[in-house]
Amino acid sequence: MKVLRQLLAHPFTHGLDLDDPRTTALRQQIIRSKPFLRKIYEDWYGWLASQVPAGEGAVLELGSGGGFFKEYSPGVITSDVFWVPDIRCVLDGQRLPFEDGALKAIVMTNVLHHVPNVRRFFAESVRCLRPGGVVAMIEPWVTPFSKIIYTKLHHEPFEPATPAWEFPSNGPLSSANDALPWVCLSRDRAMFEREFLELAIERTDPILPVRYLLSGGVAMRSLLPGFAYRPLGWMERLWPISRGAMFARLLLRRC
Predict the structure, then answer these.
(1) Which residues of the chain have a pLDDT value below 70?
(2) Which burial class, exposed, middle or buried, applies to 68 when counting CB atoms under 10 A from its CB (0-12, 13-18, 19+)?
(3) What pLDDT is recorded for position 88?
(4) Residue 154 and residue 148: Cα distance in Å, rounded?
(5) What is the predicted pLDDT for the residue at 233?
(6) What are the C-alpha distances in Å from 213 to residues 155, 196, 246?
(7) Residue 167, SS3?
(8) Can you list the positions of beta strands (E) in the chain?
(9) In this predicted structure, what is the pLDDT of residue 17?
């Protein structure tokens, strides 16, 4: 599997340090330059934007540096944990620099599983969101199929059996647990609901059993051209999504 990952590695970021801000900046170029992968992000961003409630309050995006969500949400406060081009602020999701009730939405794509202490993030979300505000996320998800992929082909830690919601912070991107969103919001859902009474879990929708894998993601070469995206999506409808998804759309609402 290691040899296969090396053969498929994208030349833009091959050999770069994951925690180097230049790697994040290059990943934006990768997403834009791979038509199949870009369509995945366009679908993700369209869904995230559609979940932002109307009314007062700002929209905060965490982990903006590698993407282009701002094209779908004018005025969004773009942010990352380190400085990269075209973001408005550097911040830590565990300590948000906003007044109580100042936000109507927090959105993120593949970010929660990099947060070392998600309890702090959820507590900050409760504090900063106004009533009716949302946390909308696209995150890795645990299924029998994804366990194989995240264990054998992916570079990030994947520990669905962990008893903890935390992990050591050794680097902003190299530190992770891809299983963490599923651990908090599915496996340990009852515990989450006891601890965070003001954050209702509205959606945990598994998605993308094979298309992201075939896109190569941001680290590997694409295996399919852009025009194959929609036809493959029709085929995915025949896939047993609950057992085969790699990601999930997650929506929490501030009560």
Answers:
(1) 1-15
(2) middle
(3) 97
(4) 9
(5) 93
(6) 13, 33, 8
(7) coil
(8) 58-62, 77-80, 89-90, 103-109, 129-140, 199-207, 247-254
(9) 85
